[in-house]
UniProtKB/TrEMBL annotation:
It comes from Phytophthora fragariae. This is FYVE-type domain-containing protein. InterPro entries: Rab4/Rab5_effector, START-like_dom_sf. Residues 1-11 have a biased composition (Basic and acidic residues). Residues 21-31 have a biased composition (Polar residues). It comes from the Eukaryota. The lineage of its organism: Eukaryota, Sar, Stramenopiles, Oomycota, Peronosporomycetes.
């Protein structure tokens, strides 16, 4: 992807910092004409349904999970839902959201963090020629109930992105953003934050794929409970001691000592088969505890299960999410996995 910045109306001289803000009393949308337009376009790998599954976040819980993967904001909340996803159209949503971005050097007092109140809309457009184009719109709005939060500055921005599948695993994207920082701030800080937000678009694909993985984990746990007796029988018999991918022997060697190839072995959390360290793919998965705390667990999978989930269509998982399926609740079976972080901005 490539990022372009409009030059008109901006000075390269840092002494003009005072000119980077417009009066808060400016009526209407005058701020949009004062700020540069930042454009990102190009292609990246992925499936459109994965991208849209990573984009849509109608609840605060899903919003927090998304932020842990995309890293597009530091805090946020859903203020109101206008259109919620349905099983017939699981990627369509319209909501009002509050988000906060923690800027570099904010702890020094030189720069204050920014927060936004935006109308967000997502969905997929269907054209007569069969093309499907995903979109995400963000537009700052103002109304009396959304008062500025202490210690931060209310900023504004308008962004819209369009995404189209042009090849089996290639997405074409066109995204632009216009930002009003809401106060004095260096040009480089505004442009850097905006450019990073636009370049994080491909993280939506990663988010969608990881959410599919989480969805499969939850379904696998339900299947495991049903087949618990069978699993115990296999455990008593010793089970499979070969790597499910490369068939490496993972059984203890002479004198009961572990073989070199068995060092770092694990069990894939999806297929539950043993996997050697070379065929193991640890993934950081975000979950929510019953009290709403965000945890990231490092979970082991085999390469075959990762490949299977990556190729799987995200539509069934998105439909389950639209019905309220709690795919991101922490599972008891993961109690032994590594906890990476419990921060929102992880």
């Amino acid at each position: 992807m490539r990022v372009y910045v409009e030059r008109k109306g901006w000075s390269d001289d840092s002494e003009d910092e005072k000119d980077l803000s417009t009066p808060q009393s400016d009526p209407g949308d005058n701020w949009q004409r004062q700020m540069p337009v930042i454009l990102a376009e190009g292609t990246f790998e992925g499936q459109l349904n994965d991208l849209m599954f990573g984009t849509v976040n109608p609840t605060q819980e899903i919003m927090r999970v998304k932020a842990s993967y995309v890293k597009d904001y530091s805090d946020g909340a859903v203020l109101a839902n206008i259109i919620v996803p349905t099983t017939e159209d699981p990627f369509r949503s319209v909501s009002v959201k509050w988000t906060q971005i923690n800027l570099p050097l904010n702890q020094t007092g030189l720069i204050q963090n920014r927060h936004f109140v935006c109308l967000e809309a997502t969905g997929i457009l269907h054209f007569a020629n069969g093309d499907r184009v995903g979109y995400q719109l963000l537009h700052s709005i103002e109304f009396p109930e959304t008062r500025p939060t202490p210690g931060t500055i209310r900023a504004k921005h308008r962004a819209i992105g369009f995404y189209r599948q042009i090849a089996p695993n290639v997405i074409d994207t066109f995204v632009f953003d216009t930002v009003h920082p809401g106060g004095k701030v260096f040009r480089s800080v505004v442009l850097d934050a905006s450019a990073k937000a636009l370049l994080s678009t491909n993280n939506y694909v990663i988010c969608g794929q990881t959410k599919k993985l989480t969805w499969r984990l939850q379904h696998r746990q339900a299947e495991t409970r049903v087949n618990r007796h069978r699993s115990r029988t296999l455990s008593v018999l010793g089970g499979n001691r070969l790597c499910t991918v490369c068939s490496r022997n993972l059984a203890p060697g002479s004198f009961g000592l572990p073989r070199v190839g068995a060092l770092g072995k694990s069990n894939c959390k999806l297929c539950m088969n043993p996997v050697c360290h070379k065929c193991k793919r640890p993934k950081a998965i975000s979950f929510l505890t019953p009290d709403g705390k965000l945890l990231r667990h490092k979970i082991a999978f085999c390469v075959m299960c990762i490949s299977e989930v990556t190729k799987m269509d995200a539509l069934p998982a998105a439909c389950d999410q639209a019905e309220g399926y709690q795919a991101y609740n922490v599972m008891a079976s993961l109690s032994g996995s590594d906890v990476l972080s419990d921060d929102f901005d992880c």
